[in-house]
Amino acid sequence: MVLDKNAAKKTAELLLQINAIKLKPENPFTWASGWKSPIYCDNRIILSYPMIRNFVREEMAKQVESLYGKPDVIAGVATGAIGLGALVADYLGLPFIYVRPEPKSHGRQNQIEGFLEANQSVVVIEDLISTGKSSLNAVDALEAAGANIKGMLAIFTYGFDVAVTNFEQKELELHTLSDYGHLIDYASETGYIKEEQLNTLNEWRMNPAEWQQK
Predict the structure, then answer these.
(1) Domain ranges of the chain
(2) What is the CA radius of gyration of the chain?
(3) Rounded mean pLDDT of 84-95?
(4) pTM, whole model, 2 decimals?
(5) Which of 106, 114, 183, 201 is the most exposed place for a label (fewest CB within 10 A)?
């Protein structure tokens, strides 16, 4: 769910500006899952642009406080949200931890890096939500360590039905700075994409797993 429509539009504008999100309906990308997609998102690029990085950091911090007050800890999901999560935690003056996809195979075999006490309240920061599987895996690890998860805040979501279902089943609140709908609306309104490209992007969004370029 998008909390602030103005921030959603601005975030979409900035992500397109620095090519953190690329739209190529005529030359689709292939995701790791094997899906063909006319859109590709890599929000880690944000870290290389100080002004945009600061906007995202401050907007996320503001929304964390608006939604949850000040939690005890901010947690980032590795690897994409480590940098961003640390920035948000620093801005709020809060401790930061991050969660690996799985425990290390050596040393202390940690999955959670940093100091976390049982029953501490945690807000999870993500960079991107597709199916939500990796994000919710991190939540499971935090809960297993005794954390009290207040919610999750991400930069962007595709809004796939499978992600909506996964978060509902987990009974976890998800908010994002922007989403696919706001992105496509902005790209269309500003002439970033043409009507034919818009149709393709809308078709893909309806059934991404089986979409093929025509």
Answers:
(1) 5-206
(2) 17
(3) 97
(4) 0.93
(5) 106
